[in-house]
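Per reviewer request, we include the raw input and output of the structure prediction for the construct analysed in the revised manuscript.
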Amino acid sequence: MAWIEIACCGLNCAECEIFQASSDTALAERISEEFKKNRNLDIKPEVIRCSGCHGDRSLHWSSDCEILHCAMDERGLESCSQCPDFPCLRIESWAEGSLRYREALERLKGS
């Protein structure tokens, strides 16, 4: 069975294009172009990488993530689902941001 990286918020890293771009130069270049075109941001392809919440923090796309800091840094947890306050207002508010985020929260609720 293949190992699957699940972020502390419940996102499946294998489904994340930025996580995938860490080992796919063409994908990183495409994402870089999308940032330029859609957000007017000049983000170099070589910085479009992420090793997940449980990987090298210097290679984490959102190393300033409030959920990451709360779960892993402040509480020493691997996942929000391990928290006695789960689900909290922070993760529930975050989950309202997109369908992927809602699915991530549901993944944690099922674990």
